[in-house]
Design a protein that fits this description.
Number of strands of chain B: 9
Number of helices of chain A: 16
Strand content of chain A: 15-25%
Shape of chain B: globular
Oligomer: heterodimer
Distance between the termini of chain B: 39 Å
Structural class of chain B: alpha+beta
Pfam family, one (chain B): Med18
CATH superfamily of chain B: Hypothetical Protein Pfu-838710-001
Family (chain B): Belongs to the Mediator complex subunit 18 family.
Largest sheet of chain A: 9 strands, antiparallel
Number of helices of chain B: 4
Radius of gyration of chain B: 17 Å
Largest sheet of chain B: 8 strands, antiparallel, barrel
CATH class of chain B: Mainly Beta
Strand content of chain B: 35-45%
GO molecular function, one term (chain B): transcription coregulator activity
CATH topology of chain B: Hypothetical Protein Pfu-838710-001
Structural class of chain A: alpha+beta
Keywords (chain B): Activator, Nucleus, Transcription, Transcription regulation
Number of domains of chain B: 1
Protein name (chain B): Mediator of RNA polymerase II transcription subunit 18
Chain lengths: ~850, ~210
């Protein structure tokens, strides 16, 4: 696109201004780069403002440009003929705009002021401004076209030829009186895809043939002053690529007719810069490029000849030029040495700097500063700032604790340090101040005593038993301090919870809470005491330390379980808060919201609400532990006291806190394979022991140890009789009668005696065994009548066959029998009475 | 202790003096993580809960100009939870001293045949949606961070479509009327959530 635009209507100039003279100016507003390849819709201009910018307010402006799409709403060609605003006159807009008729695609020319009342234009405009005075003008007459160049280009070239490098602008109006003109109109829509070539631009534009008469408003400059200047600046003497590119870039810009920001205002009589006289701005560039091309061609030719090696070869230049003394190798060596030394120096310097920084770092680490300590503290503890104090929270509240103790500690800066003295190693610039009642160390002590101690020394017993480990001279680290304080707090909470429950719970024997001790009686003559041992660091408490208690009465398991229980309790308080579902519902217990047929009845709700307290649980656990240990002791004492039969107990390793089980086997030594009759499973609970017999019988025993002992004794006596039965089976003897509970004979104080009678395979002999838990065993042997000499002859039994009848019983003196144990003795007896089969 | 459940009071108009104090805001999806993280730190120490609810809004048009609106909501991810019927009154902006929006509210837990019951009464369903998000609690304050899903096929909660690329954040307290002190707590809490989310009292009338 050239700088001139054709318009095709006769504007009545006379009504606007008397002429186009007086302080004439040419203004280049915007530029093609704002239109192509893509439109820049920010570029809108006001002609009144332009008039002020070119220091000619009230100027009469004519020229060509793009229509104000911001007002019109579409793109158009613009022919500004405007008397701009001044102090004396209001602005008059006589502009025209031409656009493509959306209805038929034809060209439509309209007067701008008929539709709008602003003075805007957009994107680009070539303007000629003057005071609008009458004066001298140049008249150019042309009869017909003689070449490819158009009228305005011809005029521009004429000016350029005449003035050379001196840029001269011209503006005005001319009229085409006859003939046709081919001209373009920009379409209403800006191109959405970038227009990168002339071809694309021409496709986008609409071309029309227009008939005379046409009034044209050309504005042009003979030569762009910028272009010549920039062309001069292209420097061919330097070889740096980047500079060349830069120059090329500016050159490209110059070709695109910029002047967006620099609305150049020049009088046509003045040249701004003095130029070397030259016909064409690109002359020097062309000359330089041509000479460069020549040189390149020569170089190319030489290289191709050299490559063929027919006419020319390249030889290295001999090094005779060097002084003969210096061996090139020594020179190389020296230079290498030098460069190595330089490199080494750099490396050494770097190493020195590194070691310095490392030592500095270590020093910094030793000198722990307050802020870094605070940062470390914050990683483990909750802190908040209140006023100018930093307060921390060591309570278990966030974990669900309801203990009312605030549990706050204060972080203080440890400044009581003598700067002259050497800093102690464990010096810490941060210290914590914990509440005085949480100082020291504490633990919960649980013990079970057989005898109730005198009520007088309740309260003072068991306290301050453990002497404190001697604290180091300096103050301990804050972490240990805080952990100890937190532990004290937890112990206090446990104890507070226990004593509250002890007072609330109604039990048959009331729990006693005295000072820091809770005493309860789980079983008669048994006392469970839970005490809080809190030893602070002051000397008074250390004095009262006594070493009377033996350390075994600690029930560490229960102490540990207490901690577990309180944590569980905490968790419960947390989890009892239920989130509502659906989410819009109010907070509350989910089950309470159930209504209608699915609602809970009273029992179900009661069962939900009843919960065991900490104390109840721990007493139950204590009871169980006590019961278990006593059962174990009973079984052990029986096993050690009674050798025949043997009693074996297999304890399970993994137990519930309220229940454990033991398997008791009663056997005879050497006959384990045949005597398996008594296998008992003892389930030790909280209050009682349940015995499950091998055949499924269940016997419930109370906590009294005598019951268990008696039961086991009776089982042992039964075992002997069972063993005889098993033995008889093996030996081929015949069981005549068997009874676990014999109703005859002396009454046993515990259990019942059991008896068995077996007959030898031939039937000649019979053995009768009676075994009682208390009375012991009594073994009788029955002989055939014919072996009894002292038997008086009966009158009735005359026949010889009756002599085979069994006669009277005789007691065996059992303790005089040989044999390890009862079953062995019995085996001996049986084999003695059986006839030899050989 | 919590306030007695509303169901214990006689359910007649105007006697229920429970008020909902409300602050609202929203976050974009990508900043949800950081908000949740912050809330976990600020709120009561408990496992973070998620919820998936289906809400249906019922209208009863009578002689009055404005219809009577009831909201029925059910949890889709917790089987066996009761339905929740809610009446919300006109929101009051109040003056500057009160930092939260206040509206009357009546909450009732119901059985699952609630929709049939409402239909029988002459209500008709106006619209429904699915809300999915996270639930937090700090004291009596309830913080809901959730996304609203449009239900594509009426009645079928399986095919849903997110309404926006953001999460709605609601801070609410249900308290007896006149306890404007709670709004101060809410304001303090909302301050602590800045600049992750700005909770404000938003007048729904202005948005219409």
């Amino acid at each position: 696109m050239t700088c001139a635009e054709f318009s095709f209507h006769v504007p009545s100039l006379e009504e606007l201004a008397g002429g186009i003279c007086g302080k004439t100016r040419i203004a280049e507003v915007g530029g093609v780069p704002y239109l192509l390849p893509l439109v820049n819709q920010k570029k809108v201009y006001d002609l009144n403002k332009i008039a002020k910018e070119i220091k000619l307010p009230g100027a009469f402006i004519l020229g060509a440009g793009a229509g104000p799409f911001q007002t019109l709403g579409f793109n158009s060609e613009f022919m500004p003929v405007i008397q701009t605003e001044s102090e004396h006159k209001p602005p008059v807009n006589g502009s025209y705009f031409a656009h493509v008729n959306p209805a038929d695609g034809g060209c439509l020319l309209e007067k701008y002021s008929e539709k709008h009342h602003d003075f805007e234009c957009a994107l680009l405009a070539n303007l000629f401004a003057s005071e609008g005075q009458p004066g001298k003008v140049i008249e150019v007459k042309a009869k017909r076209r003689t070449g490819p160049l158009n009228f305005v280009t011809c005029m521009r070239q004429t000016l350029e030829k005449h003035y050379g490098n001196k840029p001269v602008g011209m503006g005005g109006t001319f009229i085409i009186q006859k003939g046709k003109v081919k001209s373009h109109i920009m379409p209403a829509e800006f191109s959405s895809c970038p227009l990168n070539s002339d071809e694309e631009v021409n496709k986008w534009l609409h071309f029309y043939e227009m008939k005379a008469p046409l009034v044209c408003l050309p504005v042009f400059v003979s030569r762009d002053p910028n272009l010549a200047r920039l062309a001069q600046r292209i420097d061919f003497s330097q070889g740096s690529g980047s500079e060349e590119e830069e120059a090329a870039g500016t050159e490209g810009d110059a070709q695109d007719w910029p002047g967006a920001g620099s609305s150049a205002d020049q009088d046509d009589e003045e040249g701004v810069v003095k130029f070397q006289p030259s016909l064409w701005p690109w002359d020097s560039v062309r000359n330089n490029l041509r000479s460069a091309l020549t040189e390149m061609c020569v170089l190319y030719d030489v290289l191709s000849i050299v490559r063929d090696k027919k006419f020319m070869t390249l030889d290295p230049v001999s090094q005779d030029a060097l002084p003969p003394k210096q061996n090139p190798q020594t020179l190389q060596l020296i230079s290498k040495k030098k460069s190595l030394a330089g490199a080494a120096q750099i490396l050494l310097k770097g190493a020195e700097r590194l070691t310095k920084s490392v030592t500095e770092n270590q020093e910094n680490k030793l000198q722990r500063d307050f802020n870094s300590e605070l940062l470390r503290l914050r990683q483990h503890w909750k802190l908040r700032k209140v006023g100018d104090k930093i307060l921390g929270d060591l309570s278990y509240r966030s974990a669900g604790s309801l203990f009312p103790h605030h549990g706050t500690f204060e972080v203080i800066k440890n400044t009581d340090l003598d700067l002259d003295k050497k800093i102690p190693e464990d010096y810490c610039p941060l210290d914590v101040q914990i509440p005085s009642d949480l100082e020291g160390s504490a633990y919960i002590k649980v013990s079970i005593q057989k005898q109730a101690p005198d009520i007088g020394d309740l309260g003072t017993v068991n306290l301050f038993k453990r002497p404190l480990p001697k604290s180091k001279p300096g103050s301990p680290h804050w972490q240990t301090k805080l952990e100890a304080a937190q532990n004290v707090l937890l112990c206090k909470e446990i104890f507070a919870q226990l004593s509250r429950e002890a007072v609330q719970i109604k039990s048959q024997i009331p729990h006693i809470v005295v000072k820091n001790q809770i005493i309860s009686q789980p079983f008669p003559n048994l006392q469970l005491s839970i005490s809080l041992c809190h030893s602070s660091n002051d000397k008074k408490s250390q004095k009262s330390t006594t070493e009377k208690q033996c350390p075994e009465d600690h029930l560490y398991v229960l102490e540990h379980n207490l901690h577990l229980l309180i944590r569980e309790f905490h968790k419960q308080t947390l989890s009892s808060i239920m989130m509502p579902h659906p989410a819009s519902a109010p907070f509350g217990h989910k089950r309470m919201r159930l209504s209608g047929p699915q609602a809970f009845d009273k029992n179900e709700i009661n069962s939900l609400q009843s919960s065991e307290g900490l104390l109840e649980k721990i007493i139950k656990q204590a009871k169980h532990i006590f019961l278990r240990s006593r059962a174990a002791a009973t079984i052990d004492s029986l096993a050690s006291r009674i050798e025949d039969p043997q009693i074996q107990a297999h304890w399970s390793n993994i137990n519930d806190v309220y229940e454990s089980s033991v398997k008791v086997l009663i056997t005879s030594q050497g006959y384990e394979q045949i005597c398996k009759s008594i296998q008992l499973q003892l389930n030790i609970g909280v209050e009682q022991i349940r015995v499950v017999h091998r055949d499924g019988r269940v016997i419930t025993l109370s906590y009294q140890e005598q019951e268990l002992q008696d039961f086991l004794l009776s089982q042992m006596s039964q075992h002997q009789v069972h063993a005889v039965q098993q033995l008889a089976k093996v030996m081929g003897w015949q069981v005549l009668s068997f009874s676990n509970h014999v109703g005859l004979g002396p009454i046993e104080s515990i259990g019942n005696a059991s008896a068995i009678t077996v007959a030898s395979p031939s039937g000649d002999y019979a053995i009768s065994v009676r075994n009682g838990p208390e009375s012991g065993s009594k073994i009788m042997v029955q002989f055939p009548r014919n072996q009894c000499k002292d038997l008086p002859k009966s009158d009735v039994l005359q026949d010889n066959k009756w002599s085979h009848l069994r006669g009277p019983f005789k007691e065996v003196q059992w303790n005089k029998m040989e044999g390890r144990n009862f079953v062995y003795k019995m085996e001996l007896l049986m084999s003695a009475l059986s006839p030899c089969l050989l | 202790m919590e306030a007695p459940p509303v169901t214990m009071m006689p359910v007649t108009g105007g006697t229920i003096n429970m008020m909902e104090y409300l602050l609202q805001g929203s976050v974009l999806d990508h900043s949800l993580e950081s908000l949740i993280h912050r809330l976990r730190g600020l709120c009561d120490n408990m496992e973070p809960e998620t919820f998936l609810d289906h809400e249906m809004v019922f209208l009863l048009k009578g002689q009055q100009a404005s219809p009577f609106v009831l909201r029925a909501r059910r949890s889709m991810d917790r089987a066996g939870a009761p339905w929740h019927l809610r009446y919300l009154g006109q929101p009051e902006m109040g003056d500057k001293n009160r930092h939260a929006l206040v509206r009357n509210c009546v909450d009732i837990a119901t059985s699952e045949n609630l929709t049939d019951f409402l239909m029988e009464m002459g209500f008709r369903m106006d619209h429904e949606f699915v809300a999915k998000g996270h639930l937090f609690r700090k004291g009596i304050m309830k913080i809901m961070v959730y996304k609203i899903f449009r239900i594509l096929v009426p009645g079928n909660t399986d095919s849903t479509e997110a309404l926006s690329l953001s999460y709605l954040v609601e801070l609410s307290v249900v308290a007896p009327a006149g306890q404007d002190v709670v709004s101060d707590d809410m304001k303090n809490f909302a301050e602590q959530l800045k600049p992750l989310v700005h909770l404000e009292k938003i007048d729904p009338k202005r948005l219409m």
